Structure formats: structure tokens, C-alpha cells
Amino acid sequence: MTTAASPLYGGNSNRRVTVRDIAQARERGERWPMLTAYDALTARVFDEAGIPVLLVGDSAAMVVYGYESTVPVTVDELLPLTAAVARSTRRALVVADLPFASYQGSSQQALDTAARFMQEGGAQAVKLEGGRRVAHQVEALVSAGIPVMGHVGLTPQSVNTLGGYRVQGRGDARERLLADAKELEHAGAFSVVLECVPAELASQVTEQLSVPTIGIGAGDGTDAQVLVWQDMAGLSPTTASFVKTYANLADTLTQAARSFADEVVAGDFPDSEHSFT
């Protein structure tokens, strides 16, 4: 007797989501959400909300460490964030970004870095940027039993060669992007992120791949959507045009901080209710 597969979003399974679950969702035509996470408390909230995949993104460079781009963040800076997210979640598939210069050099370098994120960080998969140029690294990781999420289009680690944060895949670059996505699938990637890609092209890539696609600024034709959680929740001071905010945490936190400060200055906090006798 077989049972119906649990949906990725909001499913009631107590086990970890796996790459097989991701593939089955694609077969069912099921769309699903992915968010970034960088600490225990927010990761637990997203896990309990039913978000099936959490990405410990190298976007932590900006939203956690205050860098201007993803380029400076290191393996040693991302590892403790990954471990915190993995320890505080029960169901979500935790994917760790491999940071700039930690995998591009060779397949062995990629394997060494990914192994640290799996062993020390507790991740269940890793993500790396690039198409054909990293296909050998993807093959090596998959052969070693490490699930790989690919990433094409706008690849922030290459922002210095791309000439800024610009839409990718227009004009002559269209076929190259499609070929890169296919290369990742052929190398064994279980999914591919499409970032800042024209919606029509993202839909075409999705149709031609057999693995799920994850869009960010790529229209509604992909299998899944991902956002940086601080952008989604209105905490980031500036966001890209494709970002939709679902809350205004910046205002909420500002008001909470001011209320606390006002009560301290006025002598209203702590009161008897919040003091020991």
C-alpha cells in the first residue's frame, strides 16, 4: 500500500525534507518556497512555518556581517551560521552556500569545502554559482554523495566581471544561460537557481530541465521562489525591484527599541512585575 506524498510546504512529516522530495514535488507540479536563514531563532520560526528549504546564503556577507557584497565572506564565517540553522530545525532541508574562492580552484577544493559544510555545519546540501565552468566541481561533489544546488543568471560572486547587479540572459546571452543550466543538470545538480533572468527565459529553462528551478527575480514560471528573509520581512533598508515585502520589521523593531528606551529613561522599567523580591 502506498501513501500520498506529503506536500513540501506545510507538510506534516517530522523527517527532513530530502532532494528526493524536491524531485517528487516537481513531478507533481507543486510549487514551493525557499528562504534564507542565518541564525537559530529565525530558522526555527521558518521551519515551524513549513518552509521546506532554508538557504544559509552567502548573502550573510551583507545582512549579517555588513560587507558591501558577497565576495569577502569566508568559509569560517559561514560555517557557524550553517550549524546554528541546522541545529535549530527539524524538517527543512538546509542548503549551505559555498563562498567565493572556496570551490572555483578545483574539484578537490570544492570537495574539501563542501565536506566542511556537511560535517561541521550539518548542512544536507550545498549551493555553488556558475554553469559550465563549475560542472566538474558539481560532478565531483555529487559523486562523493553531496547534493548540489546550482545557480545561474546573476551570480553575485561574479559581480565584478558582470559589471554590476544586472539582468542576465538577454540577447546573445540567452542560449549561453540555457546551456549553463543544462550543464548543471547533466553534472548532477538536484535543482538550479535562476537569478535576475527574464521571465520568458526562466520559463523556457524550467520546461527544458527535468530538475526543479528556483527563481529570484525570474518571473512566475519556475518551480520555486526564494528571497532573502530580511528583504521579504521589510528589515533591509533597500531591496531589488523584484522583491515583495510581507511585513515591516524595521518599523516594528524601531518602535520596540524606542518604547524600551523611553520606559528606562522615565523610570517605568523595570517595574515590580519585572523585579525580584
UniProtKB/TrEMBL annotation:
Cofactor: Mg(2+)
Catalytic activity: (6R)-5,10-methylene-5,6,7,8-tetrahydrofolate + 3-methyl-2-oxobutanoate + H2O = 2-dehydropantoate + (6S)-5,6,7,8-tetrahydrofolate
Record-stated family: Belongs to the PanB family.
Pathway(s) it belongs to: Cofactor biosynthesis; (R)-pantothenate biosynthesis; (R)-pantoate from 3-methyl-2-oxobutanoate: step 1/2
Protein name per UniProt: 3-methyl-2-oxobutanoate hydroxymethyltransferase
GO function terms (MF aspect): 3-methyl-2-oxobutanoate hydroxymethyltransferase activity; magnesium ion binding; methyltransferase activity
Annotated GO CC locations: cytoplasm
EC assignment: 2.1.2.11
Subunit structure and binding partners: Homodecamer; pentamer of dimers.
Gene symbol of the encoding locus: panB
Location of the active site: E195 (proton acceptor)
Annotated GO biological process: methylation; pantothenate biosynthetic process
Record: residues binding 3-methyl-2-oxobutanoate: D58, S59, D97, K127
EC top class, as a word: transferase
A Pfam family: Pantoate_transf
